[in-house]
Design goal:
The complex is a heterodimer of chains A (384) and B (405). Chain A is mainly α. Chain A is built from eleven helices and nine strands. Chain A has a three-stranded antiparallel β-sheet. In chain A, strands 1-2 form a two-stranded antiparallel sheet. In chain A, strand 1 and strand 2 form a beta hairpin. Chain B has a single domain, classed as Cytochrome-c3 Hydrogenase, chain B (Orthogonal Bundle). In chain B, the strands form three sheets. Chain B has a three-stranded antiparallel β-sheet. Chain B has a three-stranded antiparallel β-sheet with strand order 6-7-8. In chain B, strands 4-5 form a two-stranded antiparallel sheet. In chain B, strand 4 and strand 5 form a beta hairpin. The chains are: A mainly alpha (384), B mainly alpha (405).
């Protein structure tokens, strides 16, 4: 392993972690402030740091910080009859997979540090030019890695419910296990149509296909709808938050957690929102793709009705500029997707457990199977 | 009080032996508003048996009333149904007035109607909002509370307190209406209607909400009548009974309003009945504001019942004596007993009072509507799921203070 690979990978991991760990607190703030706006309240604005006699509140942005401090210093209570080992393990199991999913998400195209100030084209790339894909790990199993890792998240919730020695926790754990395993199936099935269209399991290939043709949400609208619903169910948020349904089973599987262990569950939920949004934009909204932007810069020309319009409307950009725009685009799309998920969270009531299961097995799963059938027929028709 | 039921089914011989899980919900459970204990026997998520145990908020209301004067009952009455205390105030006033045999001036009756209907709207807003919140819809709940705050602003301007007003008096009210009352009420009604429509848009057109409420917690009409259920719960089963219409009191016969009734007696119908009752209350408010005279006496002018005005107390010997007698001995209703009932926030709120002719009540018995409504809860909950307990229980609108007294 040479130093270039090591350095670039370290930088990319740093970027991904920075995104996750800065988005999660901002998300907590955004959720509270946005819900306050929707509900005609003020929301959190009190937390402040007194500096030279001035109270700095930053629109309530200090609240996540205060929350984190509180959680760290709080007593870590473990129920006397709990299974101590599993009780401590559960929050780790539910947080770590949520973060590791980020490893395969591409947030930019291949970057060639040597060509950073050139107008990029493939001709410049020689055999000795070192490039690094803006993606922590380009695994050949691609999306399957996401399913495999995200699927372990359910174990955390289930053993949290089991190990707490509390009936409410147990009910929450059972609900979480049942719900997440069921929606895992739908999640996978809904994407089979995408694999068929994109003709690859690699996430970067999927983005390239979308750049060349169209965004996935137009090519696979049913898959988008099903996947989006299932993804919200996987993050266990309203309307799918029965595992923690606070009005009936107190806090569900994390009833008996306090301090930073609770904090990890809490953060795990928000990290899951970030990762599920990242997967969604990668699969269905072109990932880091910005319309009219290609490797050499802006190109506004487009073809319609047999004419080429705006033929000369090109703005050349250097390689670093294009890459920067791509990464910024990706972050913006991510923020928009997260914002949309927050809106849903505060608008809908909660399903009942059996209704969630009925929705999964009787509506979403048949729908995704139908989608596979339709996609297959269209591909055959196109090829013949 | 806890029962153990062992069920033996033939089919279970083929499966692993299972037994119901006993789950103790409450008395301090985040969702049990009011302090109620429910002992559940669960088969998975399905409720096989439930034992509802009220009484954790018992403060001895009825016994406490036998210590002071008749007027000193009001603070206790406030704390019965603390979501709509004004209705209890009016209810108790009417009971004692019936015992004495007086009627309050017309202006006072209108004033009571206005404050009472505002309290009723606040009560239904709380119940429906909490019902939505228990289903996870937090936003409409806070919208409802916002409106409730507007109503409480009016009540605060009138009475000086947001919740525990202690504003009723035997033979009148503590203070005459403020000059801005009519305008305040007229100003607020369109805004209330607007928020109601907004919240309905969020809930009643929402598939999840409909699925969660329709056909859940069904109360049969016959059973409801048999058990003496009253209020919105009774009307949701299709019985057209409202004390305000059936046995009008306090000039309710003069108002033109409908009694909304449901059909199925499920949570959805109870939600709709309460929503419509708020609209009807607003209609009553509009009429009451239009009909209420701007001046005239608010209290009965009998110094044995109502305190004389302050300038008389300070400047005349008769006034001083009357004030002294009322404060030291209290007013003395004739010997006798009376049952008087009004339509309170969640049903037929009755006061059975006995007087031995002294200044202290001999007995004040309150018929709490939600205690009787709660008694039927078990039948509504059996064979439903855990998630349905709290919404169903919420739609009963059990108020701990009134139920346990």
């Amino acid at each position: 392993m040479d130093s270039f690979l090591l350095l670039s990978t370290a930088a990319k991991i740093g970027f991904a972690l920075a995104i996750i760990f800065s988005f999660a607190p901002v998300l907590i703030w955004a959720e509270r402030r946005q819900s306050a706006m929707m509900q005609d309240r003020v929301g959190p604005v009190r937390a402040n740091i007194k500096l030279f006699g001035i109270n700095i509140t930053l629109f309530g942005l200090l609240h996540p910080l205060a929350d984190a401090l509180k959680l760290i210093f709080k007593e870590d209570f473990v129920p006397p009859k709990a299974d101590k080992f599993l009780h401590a393990l559960a929050p780790i199991i539910s947080l770590v997979p949520a973060i590791s999913v980020f490893a395969v998400i591409p947030f930019g195209d291949v970057f060639y540090p040597e060509l950073w100030n050139q107008h990029f084209s493939m001709d410049l790339v020689g055999p000795a030019t070192r490039g690094t894909p803006l993606q922590i790990a380009s695994l050949n199993v691609g999306i399957l890695f996401i399913f495999g890792i995200a699927g372990t998240g359910v174990v955390g919730a289930a053993i949290a419910g089991y190990s707490s020695n509390n009936k409410y926790s147990l009910l929450g754990g059972i609900r979480a296990a049942g719900q997440m395993v069921s929606y895992e199936v739908t999640l996978g099935m809904s994407l089979v149509g995408c694999f068929m269209v994109y003709d690859s399991l690699l996430l970067e290939d999927m983005v390239h296909w979308q750049m060349a043709h169209m965004w996935g949400v137009m090519a696979q609208p049913i898959a988008f709808f099903v996947f989006f619903t299932a993804a919200i169910a996987e993050t266990k948020r309203i309307p799918f938050d029965v595992p923690e349904g606070e009005s009936e089973i107190v806090g569900g599987y994390f009833t008996e957690y306090s301090g930073m262990k609770f904090g990890m569950f809490f953060m795990g939920e928000f990290v899951e929102v970030v990762t599920s949004s990242a997967i969604l934009i990668t699969l269905f909204f072109g990932g880091y793709h910005m319309p009219f932007l290609n490797a050499g810069g802006w190109d506004f020309s487009f073809q319609a009705f047999g004419h080429v319009y705006l033929e000369n409307a090109q703005i050349a950009l250097q390689h670093w500029g294009v890459t920067l725009i791509e990464v910024v685009t990706w972050v913006l799309k991510l923020s928009l997707m997260i914002w949309f998920q927050l809106m849903i969270r505060w608008s809908l009531p909660r399903f009942r457990y059996d209704q969630i299961m009925a929705l999964c097995w009787k509506v979403l799963l048949p729908l995704s199977l139908l989608n596979i059938l339709i996609t297959g027929l269209v591909i055959i028709w196109n090829n013949s | 009080m806890e029962r153990i039921e062992e069920e033996l089914e033939d089919e279970s011989a083929l499966e692993l032996p299972t037994e119901p899980m006993r789950l103790n919900m409450g008395p301090s459970h985040p969702a049990m508003h009011g302090t109620i204990r429910m002992v559940l026997d669960l088969d998975g998520e399905i409720i096989k048996d439930v034992d509802i145990q009220p009484g954790y908020l018992h403060r001895g209301f009825e016994k406490s009333c036998e210590r002071g004067t008749w007027a000193q009952v009001y603070p206790y009455a406030d704390r019965l149904n603390y979501v709509s205390p004004m209705l209890n105030n009016v209810g108790f006033s009417l009971a004692v007035e019936k015992l004495i045999g007086i009627t309050v001036p017309e202006r006072c009756a209108y004033y009571r109607v206005i404050l009472g209907e505002l309290a009723r709207i606040a009560d239904h807003l709380t119940c429906n909002g909490a019902g939505a919140m228990e289903l996870g819809a937090f936003t409409p709940f806070l919208w409802f509370l916002k409106v409730r705050d507007w109503i409480w602003d009016i009540l605060e301007r009138e009475t000086g307190a947001r919740m525990t007003h202690s504003f009723g008096r035997i033979g009148g009210m503590a203070k005459p209406p403020t000059e801005t009352l009519k305008q305040d009420v007229l100003d607020i009604l369109p805004q209330v209607e607007k928020v109601l429509l907004e919240a309905e848009g969020m809930l009643l057109r929402n598939r999840i909400f409909i699925d969660r409420t329709q056909g859940i917690g069904i109360l049969k009409k016959d059973l409801a009548i048999e058990m003496g259920v009253t209020g919105a719960m009774l009307r949701s089963t299709g019985v057209d009974y409202d004390v305000r219409k059936a046995h009008p009191y306090s000039l309710y016969e003069r108002f033109d309003f409908e009694v909304p009734i449901g059909h199925d007696g499920d949570n959805y119908d109870r939600f709709l009945v309460r929503t419509e009752e708020m609209r009807q209350s607003m209609r009553i408010l509009e009429q009451a504001v239009a009909q209420m005279p701007d001046d005239g006496p608010i209290n009965v002018e009998d110094v044995r019942i109502m305190m004389p005005p302050k300038d008389q107390v300070y400047n005349t010997i008769e006034g001083t004596i009357a004030h002294f007698k009322l404060v030291m001995e209290g007013l003395k209703p004739p010997v006798g007993e009376v049952y008087s009932y009004t339509e309170a926030g969640n049903g037929d709120m009755g006061f059975y009072i006995v007087s031995d002719g002294s200044g202290t009540p001999y007995r004040v018995r309150c018929r709490p509507p939600c205690f009787i409504n709660l008694a039927i809860c078990r039948d509504m909950l059996l064979d439903e799921m855990i998630a349905d307990i709290v919404p169903t229980f919420g739609s009963v609108n059990m108020i701990g203070g009134e139920c346990d007294r």
